[in-house]
Predict the 3D structure of the following.
Amino acid sequence: MRITGAQVFVGGPGRNYVTLKVLTAQGVHGLGDATLNNRETLPAIYLRDYIVPALIGMDPRNSEDIWQFLYRGAYFRRGPVAMAAIGAVDMALWDIKGKLAGLPVYQLLGGRSREAAMVYAHAAGADLPDLMDSIAHCIEQGYRAVRVQCGIPGMPSAGYAVPEARGRGKHYISDFAGIRPRVEIWDSGRYMRFMPGALAEIRARFGPELHILHDVHHRLLPREAAEFARAAEPAGLFWLEDPTPAEDQDALDLIRQHSTTPIAIGEVFNSIWDCNRLIEAERIDFIRVAVTYAGGITHVRRIVDLAGLHHVRTGFHGAPSHSPISMAAQAHLNIWAPNFGIQEYLVLATPDCDALFPSAHRVENGLMHVSDAPGLGIDFDEKQAARYEYRPGSHPVVRLEDGTLWNY
Ligand code: KDG
Ligand code: MG
């Protein structure tokens, strides 16, 4: 059996999805997602120029050896661009493996550990009453877990993942407004004075059953994060995400020393080497890596197994920049992983997106049910794909009021 070629598509409805289709002499094909939000052309070039020519002639069933070849063989290892490209190949090879076996990928991983996987939705408000409405809307739709982000009184800009005005659209990641980023102004003091109390009010309003999550998006210093995590304890969070930038991982001990609020980190990690010390030292409760930029199913499975040894559960990244292909790959991991925690779920499930990526995976009542179709259980309609092209966009940059550049 051998690979005869592979195609890379960039574009999609409202997103620059990077889709890889690996072709074989036997007519079976596999799909992978290499979308790297606002840097989408880079994994596409990495795939087209450096990976696809090397794949031709290889046996697609040897997914482990191909992973090692792409990772070790490149000499310059890791990083989001390379790992997203490797991740896409790996997903496609698991897709082929499942189709050849006539089995869904989760069966190849070890079968079901649960019937369905809990997902969390996003709620956001320009102010607390607006956020309360947004949470109530998520609960009406059946979600049992909700990430809550709120505008901060007196802050010159809206804050992370928060609409500028009540009832405004909340697609906060890319507005395709070009490469020059929008600037947001941040004030940690105002945030710290307001947000813990807001979280407690949310708990009081919605009761003990709702799983409440909150994303700090790397904006606090370790000492501030420790204070914030302790102040948020009355809200009984499911998790506090990215309280600090995770480059200085020893500093995270401060949070542990001062609070029992569960901590989730890892959406920007690309390999096990970015999180092995965090996991082994049990500084986190949830690992947030994604199959897309952490090297696909083969590599993320290793991270999941290491995490399982240290009571760390999964909470894979699922921002709207992930295409339904990587969300499908994560659905298979979620059904299998003995230490599954939760899945972020924010696919743009519009008719256009469903037409581009048809599948029988479904989310109902806040639970993701995985399809039993062979492989990843997802298709890609190339005729639909021809409707879209790459559009440049950018994340905002964040500055303090005096102009100092801060963490997005
Ligand atoms: O591209 C950046 C986004 O993926 C990120 O801002 C989303 O923090 C995020 C989350 O938790 O989904
Ligand atoms: Mg996040």
Notes: The CA atoms of residues 10 and 41 lie 8 Å apart.
